[in-house]
Write a structure and sequence with these properties.
- By secondary structure, the chain is α/β, with parallel strands linked by helices.
- 37% of the residues lie in helices and 17% in strands.
- The protein has 14 helices and 18 strands.
- Helix 12 runs parallel beside helix 14.
Length: 456
């Protein structure tokens, strides 16, 4: 009904942008209605769950960069299941790999040998720089970051860890403490030994794009809030939930040097930036010219299955052997088959290079919209991990919350599903499946042009 109203509203004034053609017909949906499912969800699921849009979408099918609702309408997915669908919804190679493994063995654990986990670890390690060659498999980014912090503390014999303000690292008690955004932190004891440094945000930060000045705060934090020795430093290479914020130039090099001089390990959270998404490199930290001691990854690693990993050096890895260590589902053969297929697809379809080319085109078009509309304060990011920050005043950078909500709703009506982030919820997170095309990028920008033009 809303879509029909949109068509009626604009049929006499201007042509609306059309979603690119795509050779797929969704299967008919015969399940419960959106209202029935919403009632069921409210009764039986976590009451803290939230949904986008005034009328929540009922998504019933996905294919590559597109999603389908219960009526069969197709949408361009520009958020990839919160940056989780890397190579495309229901990519045939990933689906087939999981199906074949399911037919053989659904589950076993590391108390037995299995080819999938061993082969996968070798293939993943081959894509890591330096001596990052030992893999631990878990189920989520929260678990991965939690384990990485444990390893750093055991290896160094220190407890204090430096994190960043505006960071997001998960929802376990430890990673909630490492997170630097109040909306994701419950009022419970948390964060003991975790210290949050100034965020090296080129747009909002006090030092602009001067990474060395932000890194000086890391030195000061170590000297003032710790015993002078630390266990580690944990950061994303582009802050995801915090609003697609790239770190200031030179920051990670200087921060890593400061932390290592205080005896700490450097941990790269690649949960959102890994596997070529940033275009310029396979791993986000490589864009900064650094090599961490521990790398965590999740989300796109399995194209949507519950898979995550911690990769470190043999020397650091040995610290867990002082006690028994086990994860029931970590390294499950079905999810490892999916992970292996993702690696193959990224290579075979040259998705890193694709992200760079399409991302550069999309970034250029978004910046033209920034020139056209004052409500766009900043356009930023790399590859297919981009952010568009909405402001009511470019001078004060006051967040345009209402305008963001209005545009997001309108984009849905036009057929584009965006993400939203930042501490004020005023940043569009554009992080689609990596198979997203130039035609998709143009459609997104054309739709955004329409939505912005309608703001009062």
């Amino acid at each position: 009904q809303a879509f029909s109203e949109t068509i009626r509203r604009y049929s006499t004034t201007a042509a609306l942008p059309c979603i690119p053609s795509f050779p797929h017909t969704p299967k008919p949906y015969r399940g419960l209605s959106p209202l029935e499912l919403l009632e069921q969800r409210q009764r039986f699921l976590n009451p803290a769950l939230f949904h986008y849009y005034k009328e929540p979408l009922l998504i019933t099918e996905g294919k590559m960069q597109y999603l389908y609702d219960h009526t069969g309408r197709r949408y361009l997915d520009a958020f990839a299941g919160i940056v989780t669908v890397s190579v495309g919804h229901c990519h045939p190679k990933v689906v087939d790999a999981m199906r074949q493994q399911n037919d053989l063995l659904q589950h076993t654990t590391t108390i037995y040998l299995n080819e999938q986990i061993c082969q996968y670890a070798q293939e993943l390690a081959a894509r890591m720089p330096g001596d990052l060659k030992v893999c631990y498999f878990v189920n989520s980014g929260s678990e991965a970051n939690d384990l990485a912090l444990t390893m750093a503390r055991l290896y160094t014999g220190s407890y204090d860890v430096i994190c960043l303000r505006n960071a997001y690292h998960g929802m376990s008690p430890t990673t909630m403490g490492a997170t630097g955004i109040h909306t994701w932190k419950y009022p419970l004891p948390q964060g003991f030994g975790l210290h949050h440094a100034l965020n090296p945000d080129p747009y909002h930060g006090v030092h602009g794009n001067d990474g060395s000045k932000y890194a000086a705060d890391v030195v000061d934090l170590i000297q003032s809030a710790t015993p002078g020795r630390v266990a580690g430093f944990l950061s994303e290479s582009i802050q995801g939930v915090g609003g697609a914020i790239p770190l200031a130039d030179g920051y990670l090099r200087a921060a890593y040097a400061a932390v290592r001089s205080a005896g700490g390990l450097c941990i790269a959270d690649e949960v959102q930036t890994g596997f070529g998404r940033t275009g310029g490199a396979y791993w986000g930290f490589q864009n900064h010219g650094v090599v961490p001691d521990i790398v965590t990854m999740a989300k796109g690693i399995g194209n949507g299955v519950p898979l995550a990993a911690v990769v470190t050096t043999p020397e650091v890895a040995r610290v867990l052997s002082q006690r028994l260590h086990f994860n029931t589902y970590g390294g499950n053969p079905v999810v490892c088959a999916a992970g292996r297929a993702v690696l193959e697809v990224v290579d075979e379809e040259r998705l890193q290079e694709h992200c760079k080319a399409v991302g550069n085109h999309l970034l250029a078009r978004l910046r033209k919209l920034q020139d056209k509309y004052d409500v766009i304060g900043d356009v930023r990011g790399h590859g297919l991990m981009l952010g568009v920050e909405m402001v009511s005043d470019r001078g004060t950078k006051e967040p345009a919350k209402m305008e963001t909500a209005q545009v997001m709703e309108r984009m849905k009506d036009l057929g584009v599903l965006l993400g939203k982030g930042g501490i004020n919820g005023n940043v569009f997170r554009i992080k689609p499946p990596m198979c997203f095309t130039l035609e998709d990028a143009d459609f997104l920008c054309d739709a955004l042009d329409v939505a912005l033009s309608e703001l009062c």
